[in-house]
Automatic annotation (TrEMBL):
<dbReference type="InterPro" id="IPR008030">
    <property type="entry name" value="NmrA-like"/>
</dbReference>
<dbReference type="InterPro" id="IPR036291">
    <property type="entry name" value="NAD(P)-bd_dom_sf"/>
</dbReference>
<comment type="similarity">
    <text>Belongs to the NmrA-type oxidoreductase family. Isoflavone reductase subfamily.</text>
</comment>
<protein>
    <recommendedName>
        <fullName>NmrA-like domain-containing protein</fullName>
    </recommendedName>
</protein>
<dbReference type="InterPro" id="IPR051609">
    <property type="entry name" value="NmrA/Isoflavone_reductase-like"/>
</dbReference>
<dbReference type="GO" id="GO:0016491">
    <property type="term" value="F:oxidoreductase activity"/>
</dbReference>
<feature type="domain" description="NmrA-like">
    <location>
        <begin position="3"/>
        <end position="244"/>
    </location>
</feature>
<keyword id="KW-0560">Oxidoreductase</keyword>
<keyword id="KW-0521">NADP</keyword>
<dbReference type="Pfam" id="PF05368">
    <property type="entry name" value="NmrA"/>
</dbReference>
Amino acid sequence: MVKVAIAGGSGQVAKEVIDALIAANKHDITVLSRNFPPTGVVPRVHWRKVNYNDKWDLVGALRGIHTLLSFIQLLSDPEQQAQKNLIDAAIDAEVRRFAPSEYGSAGTIHMPWWSGKQIIREYLRKVNEDKRVSKYTLFQPGLFLDYLASPYKTAKHVEPLDTVFDFQNCRTTLVDGHENAIMTMTSVADLAAVVARAVEHEGQRPEIGGVRGNRVTFSQIVQIGEKIRGRPFIIEKVKIEDLEGGVLNTSWTLRKRHKAVPEEQSATLVKVVSIGILLSSLKGAWDVTDDLNQLFSDYVFDKIEDFLTRVWSGKS
C-alpha cells in the first residue's frame, strides 16, 4: 500500500485521478485542502485542512506520505508560493515522490496562463542543484481528447472546454503553412489510469512523464473530424505575424471558460488561449514524449478516431 497525498484535490483532473487510485484499491489517500471537507466526501479518502502559507503545517500533514501529487490551481497564485511551500515541506517530511501541477503540454512558450509551470520546473531544478532531494515526475498528456467532444461530457469530473478544433460546428483554425504542427491528445481516463500505475510503480520513474495517447498533426485531426462528422470542416487560416501581434483574425472564438478563470477575465483569456495554442504548437510544445508509454508498455490507449466516433456517431 502506498500513502498518497493529493494537493488541490477538489479540482476536476484531481478527482479523476483520485477515482483511479480508489479503483486500484491499493492506496491510503489523503486530500489536502484549504477548507473543511465538502459534503459527500468519497469513502476511503481522508481529508486534512492545511495552510499552504505555513510550511510547518504542511510538514506535519505530509509526515509518513510516500507520494505527493499536486493539482494546485496555477492562475490563483502567480508566484506559485503555495507549490514552493509544498515542495519545501515535502523535502523536510521526507516524501519520496512528488508530481507538480502539470497535466498538459510539454512546453509553456506563448501560454502565459501556464507560466506557473515553468516557475515550478525551475524551482525543482534549483532545490536539486547540489543534491537530489526531491524525486519528481512531470505528468504531461498533451491536450485532453475529451475537449474535442465539447459540448458533450465524456469524463466523470472534467467539464467540456472548447479548443481551436470545433467538432460540433465542423470548423477549425490553422496556422497558414504549418498545418502539420504536432498535437498530442490523450483522454482524461487514460491519464488518470497511467498516473495511478505510476504511483504504485516501485521502480524508478522518469522526470519527464510523457503520456502519449495520440500523436497527430493539426491536418490529421481535421481529416478525422471530416470523416466522423461526414462533412467538410470550415478551415480558417491565420498568419504567424498576426498571432505574434496578438491579433486573431477568425470569424469565431472559444466560448467556454474554465471555472478557475474569473468571468470578467474570460473574454480576454479565450483569445489568448487560442493564440497561445496555435503559436506554441509551432515550437513543439504539444509534442510530448512517450516515457510512460514505454514504462507501461502493456497499457492500451484510446485511439482518437475510436474515441471521437463513440462521441459523435449519430449526432447531427
